[in-house]
Design goal:
Length: 148
């Protein structure tokens, strides 16, 4: 029996690591279920979901040229049983400024020419530099006060 991508098979968990579980397939070959493919929710400890000897249904995700078999338990479930994963909000990191790196300022007009962009960059740079300079001087005890 050859292993084909997208086929669903019954397997037996033969080993568990911190990054996934090894599953023996009916033909005697072994594949890996990555920890991200064990359950639909975040899996911190794979031992909470699987034990060596468990019978599991897996879906073949890929078969590498080197013979490595990528498996998934969560994708082996019928679509109706799988809860929908919440979509990530677009616009960068959670709690961030929506991908806007200009510190909360509105994004620049796309029709800016090079000189306008350079002028804006220089102004922002000078503001940051003066703020940094003020903070550094206050820690030293004022202007020109150097300890020897």
């Amino acid at each position: 029996m050859s292993i084909e991508v997208d086929s669903k098979l019954q397997g037996k968990v033969t080993g568990i690591t911190n990054f996934g579980a090894f599953v023996e397939l009916p033909d005697g070959s072994t594949g890996l279920v990555h920890i991200s493919e064990v359950a639909d929710s975040y899996v911190k400890d794979i031992n909470e979901h699987l034990k060596v000897g468990d019978a599991v249904e897996v879906k073949v995700m890929n078969v590498g040229a080197d013979g490595k078999i990528g498996l998934s338990i969560r994708r082996a479930k019928p679509e109706a049983e799988r809860p929908q994963r919440p979509q990530r909000p677009s616009g960068g990191r959670p709690g961030g400024s929506g991908g806007n790196r200009s510190g909360g300022r509105p994004s620049p007009n796309r029709t800016e020419n090079f000189e306008q962009k350079m002028a804006r960059f220089m102004k922002d740079s000078e503001e940051r530099l003066s703020t940094l300079k003020r903070a550094t001087e206050s820690k030293r005890g004022g202007r020109g006060a150097r300890r020897g």
